[in-house]
Amino acid sequence: MTSVRSARRSALRVGLGMAAVALLAACSGPAASNNTSSSGSPDTGSATSGGALKVAVVTHGSAGDTFWNVVKNGATDAGKALGVTVDYNSDGDPGAQSKLIDNAVSQKVGGLVVSMANPDALKTSIDAAVKAGIPVITINSGGDKSASFGAIAHVGQEEGIAGEQAGKKLKEAGKTKLLCVIHEAGNIGLNQRCDGAKTGFGGTVTNLQVDINNPTDIEARIKGALQTDSSIDAVLALNPQVAVNAASAVKGASSKASVATFDLNADVVSGIKAGDVLFAVDQQQYEQGYLPIVMLKLYHDNANTVGGGQPVLTGPGFVDKSNVDKVEEYAKRGTR
Amino acid sequence: MAAQAPPTADERVGKPGVLDRLVVRPEIGSLLGALLVFLFFSIVTEQFLSPGGVATWLDDASTLGIMAVAVSLLMIGGEFDLSAGVMTASTALVTAILSTQLGWNVWLALFASLLFALGVGALNGWLVMRTGLPSFIVTLGTFLALQGLNLGITRAVTGTVQVSGMRDTDGYASAGFLFASTFTFGGTSFYISIIWWVLFTVVASTILVRTRFGNWIFAVGGSALSSRAVGVPVMRTKVFLFMTTAFAAWLVGSINILRFTSVQANQGIGLEFQFIIAAVIGGCLLTGGFGSAVGAAIGALIFGMARQGIVYANWNSDWFQLFLGVMLLSAVLVNNALRRRAERVRR
């Protein structure tokens, strides 16, 4: 067994050597907030005109999520239309997402599109991208941090405003007691929506936590909540899948509650037609995939920026019985 | 323990050849797998071998590797810990809540969350040993309980589902320097978590193969009854192993919270299986009593290389899990084949 022992010893030596190198090498700790890292807009003159463009889209959606599927379709469609290579990756874990951003930076992509459900966690990686001269556009969430991180634009909807509008609309429909269903435990935007709904609604709002990956459980929990409190007359889902589950939960609990939801899919559309769903707050996420590619292409070819430092809002729009037919065919092909 | 060469050659004692000696190492399968994955992505993609690329996949492998090594020790000891994934978030949340909400110094908060982690680890071990229930069940319970605690306490204390604002806390810079800084090597910056990973692997491997305690780990994993009969302190060994995974989860949680300066209440869920997978690729058996800490580290390396390599190759990320599953199966099959061969050599 001597060979094994010496191998082990040399492994130990390599390990210690690496540690020594680390100690000797120039270490740099993470910056505390008092010495802010360089940010601000990247050099606008750096946009080269023409040439091939490759854009990495890194989102926090979980694979197989209906909402993010539409964003992905938007980005890939724009890529096809404009001749831009689009590379879509996503991970719900902020650490993994930041590594995907690092990955894009080391690939020297020509543009980066990031959704920031957890801006602080992505700050270092996005800083690195901005420092490397890669134009960054943030989408969907994290709009308030977008400019300070050095992104050239933000495309999305203000969650608070959207929630407030949804709450107002429910109030106008004469509802008094609302159940707000949160489907991702780590997503601040969802909480902002419920808080906004509370502001706009005026009545009592209770939050219910469910797990988006388990539809059976979602339905059971909403049903349970409706059975426990029969005075609940409105359910606000924050995701189309949850909305469908909520609609069947309402039926199952033989409750009088109406379901309203954020975002669309084909099922929600047919639910609106059938009267199971009151309305959907549509943030038109297809645009959140499509527009950044267009904007990066303009920036790349013509050094144009869009939005004038303000977020480019894709919502809230409302889909209800009045306009549902138009939207339906588009939802079916995965673009609404 | 260099074997004394017998004075005269005995025809009944065969000397195993170099290949046979290699093949009995539990980590050899993962080493081959790592080489294959490395070569594959180096050839297929341009950036995989660039300094920035290497830094990215090493970074990806590092925190997974720390956990995989700890989990491999536990698995060699014949137990599982399904709460390990959520523990990485729990420890980060404890640190973050204490320092951002209660204004504690980061070092103090880190120490408190370490105590918390060791407490949960000890509880896991104690429950498993006292009840005689499979650790799979006990730690599944802990996993669910921690998941609820993470969300419940975070919501109750902060009113939201993320704790952020670590940058403004006392002692952030010094703690961050230890857990989340970068070092520059050959013009590329690498995260210090890689060093932690290497250190942790070296220490764990040394304990496992060079100390009496390491022998106890193999013994209690092989047969708890027999090892108790020959005087191995089974209870102490297993509780210590559970505390080791908890410690590793604290280390990873601390690295994460100081690097990302925020933590989500739902982080870490599902990672426990990745730790187990990495350990299994590294040659650990689900039945205990066999495996290697270095192998688990290599298993994590395969994971990191594949995860980032798939992105470098510009493959459609929809297929990512499929690829991982196929890779896991092939690694385990290779391990299995090699182990059968190894057992022939031993006898």
List keywords for this structure.
heterodimer, A: 336 residues, alpha/beta, six-stranded mixed beta sheet, 12 helices, B: 347 residues, mainly alpha, two-stranded antiparallel ribbon
What does this structure look like?
The complex is a heterodimer of chains A (336) and B (347). Chain A has 336 residues and is an alpha/beta fold. Chain A has helices spanning 2-24, 66-82, 94-106, 119-131, 143-146, 159-172, 188-201, 215-228, 240-252, 266-274, 285-302, 324-332; strands at 27-28, 54-59, 85-90, 111-115, 136-140, 153-156, 177-182, 204-209, 234-237, 258-262, 277-282, 312-313, 317-319. In chain A, the strands form two sheets. In chain A, strands 3-2-4-5-6-12 form a six-stranded parallel beta sheet, with helices on both faces. Chain A has a six-stranded mixed beta sheet with strand order 8-7-9-10-11-13, sandwiched between helices. In chain A, helix 6 (159-172) packs parallel to helix 7. The longest helix of chain A is centred in the first third of the chain and has 23 residues, at 2-24. Residues 1-9, 14-26 and 34-48 of chain A have low confidence and may be disordered. Chain B has 14 helices and four strands. The model of chain B has no long low-confidence stretch (mean pLDDT 89). Chain B is mostly helical and 347 residues long. The radius of gyration of chain B is 21 Å and the shape is globular. Chain B has a two-stranded antiparallel ribbon with strand order 1-4. In chain B, strands 2-3 form a two-stranded antiparallel sheet. Chain B is 71% helix and 4% strand. The interface between A and B is large, with 57 and 70 residues.
